[in-house]
Design brief:
Length: 328
Amino acid sequence: MTDQLIRDFATLFEGRTDAYGMEWGGCERPQFHGADPHAYWLERVRAHLAGEPVGVYPMVPQHPWGHPEWGLDGWDVKWGCVDLDVKAPGKRRWDYETEADAHVAAGNLVAALRALGITGWIERTRSYGRHVWAFASGWTPAADMRRTLLVACKLADVPPTEVNPKSERFESPQSLGNYVRLPYPGPLDQRLPTRVVLHNDLMLSLETFLTLAMEKRSAPHVFAAAAQLWQKPTHKHGGVDLVFDVDVELPNPLPGYVYTLAKQGPKSPDEDRSGWLYRLACKCEQAGLDESTALAVVTYADVQHTRKYVTRSDGEKRLIETVERAYA
């Protein structure tokens, strides 16, 4: 494994370098004690490619002229990813019944990205679903990446449930959002043919994928232009305007008590709405649901019962913050 290969992989999938996602959940926060976080990232890539998998948080806070004390200027990313899940025993949420269905959808999404001037890459995930990746040649506003992927999902008629980055910005530079597990965690001959990138249904070697993906990265201005096609959704549900795109169906299946609580709503109409939504998010965390499923549950409950956030311009952000607080 060459140093150049490691540098290319690190460049392609770069994100937060002060925190990493663990293979089976949880967050690793390395202690640098004056050491260079980027050097640690390179070593983490080396370990990943040798068989110690890692997940990366895509959103990196940007400060004016690099000075944190001046406040937060925005959030940037170098990549985006759409996760298409396949039905499996014990899985609480899925997008497609079979791997074949997910593969067709991923192909349609790649075609939609191509129409926007962006190259997409299909990865077979560890659960035999699909990740569709898009890479930028430089730091790109998270809002441009997310909106571009949402436009592509709409063009391809693909559910936008798992579009990463899942937010456009956070209020605090300490916020991490969600991580995505990276492909190629170890030599191909030592594991099942999953978590590899496919081209024309054939598995690409790590070397071939990196050569092609580095060449075909899209410039930030391409994502900015595609993002201009995004339109902020306005929906009506029960006569109420919803100012962001929400799924008003509960994820399926769910643990019985989470399902019952979300369906029945607060016991009293006088109960504090934000407090009840937070407690529901805590129940999701206690049940072992991932954060994206918890967000779907809490959003459903807000649409159906409390209407605390879904009619507000910052409603999506507030719901995300509610779930993040429960999972902190």
